[in-house]
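Sat 14:20. Reprocessing the chain from the morning session after the first attempt stalled halfway. Input below, unchanged.
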Amino acid sequence: MYFEIIGTIENIETIAVGGRIREIQRLRKQYGSGRWRKLKGIAYIRLTKGSIRRAEVHWYEAHGIGKKKMKIKRFLD
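Finished this time. Tokens:
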């Protein structure tokens, strides 16, 4: 599902760091080594059809690499 983040992501929390991430080997192989973290937050998103919804999003992030593999976990409205 394609979506676009509108505005800022709020209530950002760390879910897992380093070896606690299930997909850590794939992340390191695909994007490089770094201090990988899995994060979650709440944001307004625009879906492919143009509708705007509030959703919980999850993603992986490492310093110097940025946000990768962002996905919608659930809709909040």
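The mean pLDDT is 96.
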